[in-house]
Write a structure and sequence with these properties.
It is built from 5 helices and 6 strands. The longest helix has 11 residues. The strands form 2 sheets. The protein has a 3-stranded antiparallel sheet. Strands 2-3-4 form a 3-stranded mixed sheet. By secondary structure, it is of the alpha+beta class. The protein is elongated. Helix 2 packs antiparallel against helix 3. Strand 3 and strand 4 form a beta hairpin. The chain has a single domain, classed as CBS-domain. This is CBS domain-containing protein.
Length: about 130
């Protein structure tokens, strides 16, 4: 016979689901979409991060770009030192809100096959990043 130890279940019927705000990291490096790919790679290396938040000229977060995306653009046949982030961004999403539940955010990440989501406020300003634990 195997002995199983049980954990008592909370009796609080009004338990609030955990939200993205509870698990997100600070926003980290934010760069403008007119920055060149070359400079963005340098910023990413200096910050020792795998992604950068990209903002437009009004400060709204428009995308999250990864080292893999930047490297692919840099190594592409159409690359020149004038290629800007806005030239390679393509699909500009997904984003999430700090009040989104972790379950919803997890579903969104699986559906969109992304390892990190920008967390933005109601004005589109970056608040942080929700990233898969490594």
């Amino acid at each position: 016979m195997t002995l199983v130890q049980m954990q008592p279940r909370s009796t609080d019927a009004t338990a609030v689901p955990r939200t993205v705000a509870d698990a997100m990291d600070t926003a980290g490096p934010q760069v403008c979409d007119d920055m060149t790919v070359e400079v963005a790679l340098s910023v990413m290396a200096s910050a020792r991060t795998g992604h950068l938040l990209v903002c437009d000229d009004s400060g709204r977060c428009v995308a999250l770009v990864t080292r893999a995306q930047l490297t692919a653009a840099h190594d592409g046949s159409a690359y020149s030192d004038r290629v800007q982030l806005r030239d390679i961004l393509g699909d500009r999403g997904p984003f999430t809100s700090p009040v989104t539940t972790m379950a919803e955010a997890g579903h969104m990440m699986r559906y969109n096959q992304v390892d990190a989501l920008p967390v933005v406020d109601e004005h589109g300003s970056a608040l942080g990043v929700l990233a898969l634990a490594r």
